[in-house]
Amino acid sequence: MGRLEGKVVFLTGAGAGIAKATAKMCVREGAVVAICELNREAGERAEREIREAGGNALFVQADVTQDDSVRDAIAATVKHFGKLNVLFNCAGGSSQDDRPVHEMDLDVWHKTVALNLLHPFLTCRHGIPHMIKAGGGSIVNVTSHLGLVGSLKPAYAATKGGIISFTKTLAAQYVQYGIRANAVAPGSVRTERQIARYENKDFVEKPSAASREREVFQKLYPFSKGEPEDIAAIAVFLASDESRMLTGTTIAADGGRSSYLKVYAGED
Ligand SMILES: NC(=O)c1ccc[n+]([C@@H]2O[C@H](COP(=O)([O-])OP(=O)(O)OC[C@H]3O[C@@H](n4cnc5c(N)ncnc54)[C@H](O)[C@@H]3O)[C@@H](O)[C@H]2O)c1
Whose CB among 14, 107, 183, 230 lies 3.0–4.6 Å from 19's, allowing a Cys bridge? Predict the structure, then answer.
């Protein structure tokens, strides 16, 4: 028996990266999955890959920043699979234009809030009634280590911090229905997008203060860079009954980045 046998899992942004890896792992653990994705090509590809491997997946195209779109995607999932047990709210990201507060375009703020914070609100708004009907379930939200410590990207950090307190509120509000809510806060994850950005042959970092800082950083936090499957494993754990004592918590999967500041020998 898989750890998610018979469960219906709805994953946002599952055409790529962490959510796609999580969808595949959920299927290996016995679940059926709804691939909620804006990009049709990516969503259909994920659906096809899962089906070709013998799993059961449904692509539902949606823009997670739009109320009607999320409502319809959840409705299509429940119509197809008959119920909903797990929400994995993963679509998200930051903008290159997420600049210091006094320089930031207001539109960047609103778009970041819509994608990272309005989105889990909308999936919960439309998904929770079905989870209540199912007698309980698990909500897994994806935040970031930058939601735990703050960063130089104000909109991203604020929305990811918001997810953490939103998760605690969901835990309090829905405990009576047998619904748990937790979050995972990744550090750096080698998704296709990250690899294309940082590991292609054109990305040659010139020696600079920043590159030297990065070298030191690697030594301080050698476990801080992971694969999508590292986060997927935590998501599956949070979705499954193995984590039945966890609700309202955030697991920092960041190799210690939000936990310690290591000073060099001789410093204090
Ligand atoms: N990759 C990392 O290093 C890292 C680190 C910390 C946190 N995170 C968080 O993890 C989550 C997933 O990151 P990733 O790197 O796997 O992302 P990704 O960019 O690889 O994939 C995101 C997917 O979401 C889809 N998407 C974007 N906007 C959408 C919308 N409006 N509606 C529906 N789908 C939409 C994209 O098309 C894409 O397929 C994000 O919330 C991100 O903030 C990632």
Answer: 14
